[in-house]
Amino acid sequence: MTTARIYQQPKNAMQSGRARTQDWVLEFEPAEAKQPDPLTGWAGSGDTRQQLRLSFPSAEAAIAYATREGIDYHVIPAPERTLKLQAYADNFR
Question: Which domain holds residue 10?
Answer without folding.
Answer: 3-92
